[in-house]
Amino acid sequence: MAELVHARNAAVAAQTALRNRLAAASSSLLKRELQIQLRFGAAHVKRLEQAICVLTAGSAELARRFEILTSIPGIGPIAAAGLIGLMPELGTLSAKQVAALAGVAPMNWDSGQMRGRRTIKGGRPTVRRLIYMAALSAAVRGANPDLKALYQQLRGRGKASKVAIVAVMRKLLILANTLIAQNRPWSPTAA
Hints:
Elements: H1 2-24, H2 28-57, H3 60-71, H4 77-86, H5 95-102, H6 125-140, H7 145-156, H8 161-182
Helix pairs in contact: 1-2, 1-4, 3-4, 4-6, 5-8, 6-7, 6-8, 7-8
Protein backbone atom coordinates (compact mmCIF):
# COMPACT_ATOMS: atom_id res chain seq x y z
CA MET A 1 0.00 0.00 0.00
CA ALA A 2 2.80 2.42 0.92
CA GLU A 3 4.50 1.72 -2.40
CA LEU A 4 1.33 2.49 -4.36
CA VAL A 5 0.67 5.66 -2.34
CA HIS A 6 4.22 6.89 -2.98
CA ALA A 7 3.89 6.06 -6.69
CA ARG A 8 0.60 7.96 -6.88
CA ASN A 9 2.11 10.97 -5.11
CA ALA A 10 5.05 10.97 -7.54
CA ALA A 11 2.70 10.69 -10.54
CA VAL A 12 0.59 13.60 -9.28
CA ALA A 13 3.74 15.70 -8.75
CA ALA A 14 4.85 14.87 -12.30
CA GLN A 15 1.41 15.95 -13.58
CA THR A 16 1.77 19.27 -11.78
CA ALA A 17 5.22 19.82 -13.31
CA LEU A 18 3.85 19.02 -16.78
CA ARG A 19 0.94 21.46 -16.30
CA ASN A 20 3.39 24.17 -15.27
CA ARG A 21 5.57 23.48 -18.32
CA LEU A 22 2.48 23.57 -20.54
CA ALA A 23 1.44 26.94 -19.13
CA ALA A 24 4.90 28.36 -19.89
CA ALA A 25 5.28 26.75 -23.34
CA SER A 26 4.96 28.88 -26.45
CA SER A 27 5.77 26.31 -29.14
CA SER A 28 2.68 24.59 -30.54
CA LEU A 29 4.64 21.33 -30.99
CA LEU A 30 5.75 21.37 -27.37
CA LYS A 31 2.22 22.14 -26.21
CA ARG A 32 0.85 19.14 -28.12
CA GLU A 33 3.57 16.86 -26.71
CA LEU A 34 2.92 18.06 -23.17
CA GLN A 35 -0.82 17.52 -23.57
CA ILE A 36 -0.16 13.94 -24.72
CA GLN A 37 2.07 13.36 -21.68
CA LEU A 38 -0.63 14.85 -19.43
CA ARG A 39 -3.21 12.41 -20.80
CA PHE A 40 -0.86 9.45 -20.25
CA GLY A 41 -0.06 10.74 -16.77
CA ALA A 42 -3.73 11.08 -15.87
CA ALA A 43 -4.34 7.50 -16.99
CA HIS A 44 -1.36 6.38 -14.90
CA VAL A 45 -2.73 8.13 -11.79
CA LYS A 46 -6.14 6.52 -12.39
CA ARG A 47 -4.56 3.04 -12.68
CA LEU A 48 -2.64 3.59 -9.43
CA GLU A 49 -5.81 4.72 -7.65
CA GLN A 50 -7.63 1.64 -8.94
CA ALA A 51 -4.79 -0.58 -7.69
CA ILE A 52 -5.08 1.07 -4.26
CA CYS A 53 -8.84 0.39 -4.26
CA VAL A 54 -8.31 -3.26 -5.27
CA LEU A 55 -5.68 -3.73 -2.55
CA THR A 56 -7.94 -2.14 0.05
CA ALA A 57 -10.98 -4.19 -0.98
CA GLY A 58 -8.91 -7.39 -0.97
CA SER A 59 -8.26 -7.24 2.77
CA ALA A 60 -11.00 -7.10 5.41
CA GLU A 61 -8.69 -5.26 7.83
CA LEU A 62 -7.66 -2.63 5.28
CA ALA A 63 -11.26 -2.21 4.12
CA ARG A 64 -12.42 -1.64 7.70
CA ARG A 65 -9.64 0.90 8.37
CA PHE A 66 -10.53 2.65 5.11
CA GLU A 67 -14.21 2.72 6.06
CA ILE A 68 -13.42 4.20 9.49
CA LEU A 69 -11.09 6.85 8.10
CA THR A 70 -13.42 7.96 5.31
CA SER A 71 -16.27 8.26 7.82
CA ILE A 72 -14.43 11.25 9.34
CA PRO A 73 -15.54 14.43 7.56
CA GLY A 74 -12.49 15.94 5.88
CA ILE A 75 -10.65 12.67 5.25
CA GLY A 76 -11.28 11.55 1.69
CA PRO A 77 -10.28 8.34 -0.06
CA ILE A 78 -6.79 9.58 -1.01
CA ALA A 79 -5.96 10.75 2.51
CA ALA A 80 -7.40 7.54 3.98
CA ALA A 81 -5.32 5.34 1.67
CA GLY A 82 -2.26 7.42 2.48
CA LEU A 83 -2.78 7.09 6.22
CA ILE A 84 -3.31 3.34 5.91
CA GLY A 85 -0.21 2.87 3.79
CA LEU A 86 2.13 5.36 5.42
CA MET A 87 1.07 4.99 9.06
CA PRO A 88 0.33 1.30 9.66
CA GLU A 89 0.80 1.98 13.39
CA LEU A 90 -2.42 4.04 13.45
CA GLY A 91 -4.70 2.66 16.14
CA THR A 92 -1.91 1.18 18.27
CA LEU A 93 -0.24 4.35 19.58
CA SER A 94 -1.06 6.94 22.22
CA ALA A 95 -2.20 10.41 21.17
CA LYS A 96 1.24 11.89 21.86
CA GLN A 97 3.01 9.13 19.97
CA VAL A 98 0.83 9.40 16.87
CA ALA A 99 1.20 13.20 16.80
CA ALA A 100 4.99 12.95 17.14
CA LEU A 101 5.19 10.21 14.48
CA ALA A 102 3.35 12.41 11.99
CA GLY A 103 5.37 15.47 12.99
CA VAL A 104 2.44 17.55 14.27
CA ALA A 105 3.35 17.52 17.97
CA PRO A 106 4.63 20.85 19.32
CA MET A 107 8.30 20.53 20.25
CA ASN A 108 10.18 22.97 22.43
CA TRP A 109 13.43 24.71 21.62
CA ASP A 110 14.24 25.53 25.23
CA SER A 111 17.82 25.70 26.44
CA GLY A 112 18.91 26.93 29.84
CA GLN A 113 17.15 30.22 30.51
CA MET A 114 15.92 30.55 26.94
CA ARG A 115 12.29 29.73 26.32
CA GLY A 116 11.12 29.76 22.72
CA ARG A 117 8.00 29.19 20.71
CA ARG A 118 6.90 25.63 20.18
CA THR A 119 7.24 24.33 16.64
CA ILE A 120 6.47 21.15 14.76
CA LYS A 121 9.33 19.17 13.30
CA GLY A 122 10.42 15.67 12.45
CA GLY A 123 7.96 12.91 11.80
CA ARG A 124 6.77 11.71 8.43
CA PRO A 125 6.44 14.62 6.01
CA THR A 126 4.24 12.73 3.53
CA VAL A 127 1.73 11.98 6.29
CA ARG A 128 1.92 15.58 7.47
CA ARG A 129 1.07 16.81 3.94
CA LEU A 130 -1.89 14.40 3.72
CA ILE A 131 -3.27 15.41 7.09
CA TYR A 132 -2.71 19.11 6.26
CA MET A 133 -4.98 18.85 3.23
CA ALA A 134 -7.56 16.91 5.25
CA ALA A 135 -7.43 19.57 7.99
CA LEU A 136 -8.01 22.33 5.46
CA SER A 137 -11.02 20.47 4.13
CA ALA A 138 -12.35 19.74 7.60
CA ALA A 139 -11.83 23.10 9.30
CA VAL A 140 -11.42 25.88 6.78
CA ARG A 141 -13.82 24.58 4.15
CA GLY A 142 -16.22 23.40 6.87
CA ALA A 143 -16.53 19.67 6.14
CA ASN A 144 -16.26 18.85 9.86
CA PRO A 145 -18.30 21.18 12.14
CA ASP A 146 -16.36 20.19 15.30
CA LEU A 147 -12.98 20.92 13.76
CA LYS A 148 -14.28 24.09 12.12
CA ALA A 149 -15.40 25.30 15.55
CA LEU A 150 -11.97 24.48 17.01
CA TYR A 151 -10.25 26.36 14.19
CA GLN A 152 -12.50 29.41 14.60
CA GLN A 153 -12.07 29.34 18.40
CA LEU A 154 -8.28 29.35 18.06
CA ARG A 155 -8.37 32.13 15.46
CA GLY A 156 -10.72 34.09 17.73
CA ARG A 157 -8.16 33.81 20.53
CA GLY A 158 -5.58 35.44 18.29
CA LYS A 159 -3.69 32.34 17.12
CA ALA A 160 -2.09 32.52 13.69
CA SER A 161 -3.88 30.57 10.97
CA LYS A 162 -0.96 28.11 10.60
CA VAL A 163 -0.97 27.44 14.35
CA ALA A 164 -4.72 26.83 14.28
CA ILE A 165 -4.41 24.48 11.27
CA VAL A 166 -1.65 22.50 12.97
CA ALA A 167 -3.90 22.12 16.04
CA VAL A 168 -6.68 20.85 13.76
CA MET A 169 -4.21 18.48 12.04
CA ARG A 170 -3.20 17.06 15.42
CA LYS A 171 -6.81 16.70 16.55
CA LEU A 172 -7.81 15.03 13.27
CA LEU A 173 -4.93 12.55 13.45
CA ILE A 174 -5.66 11.72 17.09
CA LEU A 175 -9.34 11.25 16.19
CA ALA A 176 -8.38 8.84 13.39
CA ASN A 177 -6.06 6.96 15.75
CA THR A 178 -8.76 6.68 18.41
CA LEU A 179 -11.49 5.53 16.02
CA ILE A 180 -9.25 2.85 14.51
CA ALA A 181 -8.25 1.68 17.99
CA GLN A 182 -11.93 1.47 18.96
CA ASN A 183 -12.87 -0.06 15.57
CA ARG A 184 -15.79 2.30 15.07
CA PRO A 185 -16.73 4.96 12.50
CA TRP A 186 -16.99 8.66 13.26
CA SER A 187 -20.23 10.07 14.61
CA PRO A 188 -21.04 13.75 15.23
CA THR A 189 -20.92 15.05 18.79
CA ALA A 190 -24.13 16.02 20.49
CA ALA A 191 -24.69 19.78 20.48
